[in-house]
Amino acid sequence: MSKSTFIYHERQESLLCGQHSLNNLLQQQAFSPDQLAEIAHQLDQLELNYMAKGDGGVNSKDYLKRLQEGSYNIDPSGNFSIEVLKSALLSRFNMNLVNSLNEEIRNKEITNWKGFILNKQSHWFTIRKISQRFWNLNSILEKPEQISHFQLASFVEQMRKEGYSVFCVLENDLLTDCHDEKELEMRGLPEFWWKEDDLLNGTGKKGYKNHWNQNLGTGMRLDGKSTAGGTSGSSNNGGGMSIEGLTEEEQIQLAMAASLQPEANVMSIATTSTMDIVELTSEPEASNPNAVRIQFRLPNNKRLMRRFLKNDSVAMVLAYVKDECDVQDVDSLDIRAGFPPKDLMAFMEKSIEEAKLANESIQCRFK
Questions:
Q1: Which end of the chain is more exposed for a tag (fewer CB within 10 A), N or C?
Q2: Where is 336: in which H helix or E strand?
Q3: pLDDT category of residue 57 using cuts at 50, 70 and 90
Q4: Could you give the domains of the chain?
Q5: Residues 324-345 pLDDT 10s
Q6: In 10 A of CB 42, how many CB atoms?
Q7: Which residues, other chains included, contact 27 with Cβ-Cβ below 8 Å and sequence gap of 6+?
Q8: 172 or 10, greater pLDDT
């Protein structure tokens, strides 16, 4: 009996298509926005340090101009540079993103590559070979779309003509496919999984194993509205703009506009600046339907993952950080999550679910 194959396809959220393209390439939720933002800031600092060693040091015209211009690797709306994506893959997975126009590789058979990341201006998307088939995992698509081996070369060439840069990833042991249903929850969010056989038969529905999440089939549209209660091409009850019939360029512009708008449901900041940390409870079992995972990066660069209950307070999360960092008071730590990174001390009274920390990565540093 042949094994089923599952395909991970993150959908567009604001201008985070760079993050989506990496996760779709890796077929797992490998990077969060704040992790990529940290890489961007590190690259900026490395460039500034290099410039500071030149004539004039930190007072040189070039250095001061670079400071004034701000980051070259991330913009306020969450768009990352190719250098951030390259650095993320190289540092975590020892993978190289190579420009397809490189003389050493441009004459190689295109179907020998495992995956591609394409970029035009502020939009990134991935093409990935999964189970010997190529799939277009563009985050603005409703679902993955198959590209035959015969069509691949012409598709990529057409993208180049439209102004896309194409970067390649060779076959890599870490670019694994998912054939085990038990792995899905560990590798990525349930609403982004598709069963390959269903896609090939035209019967695929968003979110494999719908019972995992009561809100499967809902999410953020490109105009920033929820898709709950209607298809991505229909107006919602709030009069949301239809994206049906829009070109890719128009959809990207719509996403850019949405990313600059304030969130409709902004979490209220705790009225008290300090409060007692709650007592840390035992870690719930993975089988608990209310259990959620949170990743942590501690000040010593140690990475941990722990389960909590979604109705646990953020204070419970901070209690865990306090315990792992072996400090007397969390006030000595800067604890942030999300993008842009938010100080979690301001949300201690919220639940993990309300603070949207499920499957999030939390960065911890000493002040």
A1: N
A2: strand 333-337
A3: confident
A4: 1-96+171-226+241-261 (no CATH), 291-366 (3.10.20.90)
A5: 998 888 888 889 887 566 789 8
A6: 14
A7: 7, 8, 128, 130, 175, 176, 177, 178, 187, 188
A8: 10
138 noted as active-site residue: yes
Q: Is 73 a catalytic residue?
A: no
Angle in degrees, 0-180, between the axes of helices 17-26 and 33-52, rounded to the nearest 10: 110
Active site residue: 20, 123, 136, 168, which one? 123
Q: How many CB atoms lie within 10 A of CB 157?
A: 12
Q: Which amino acid is at 115?
A: G
Token reading at 8: 């991970």
In Å, how far are 86, 97, 118, 169 from 90, measured between CA atoms? 6, 8, 17, 11
User: CB burial class (10 A; 0-12, 13-18, 19+) of residue 163?
Assistant: exposed
φ, ψ of residue 121 to 5 degrees: the values are 55, -115
Asked if 187 contacts 170 with a C-beta cutoff of 8 angstroms, the reply is: no
Nearest to 295 by CA among 10, 28, 94: 28
Q: From the candidates 79, 119, 138, 178, give the one annotated as an active-site residue.
A: 138
Q: What is the pTM assigned to this prediction? A: 0.58
Structure tokens at 116: 């591609």
Give catalytic status of residue 178 as yes or no.
Answer: no
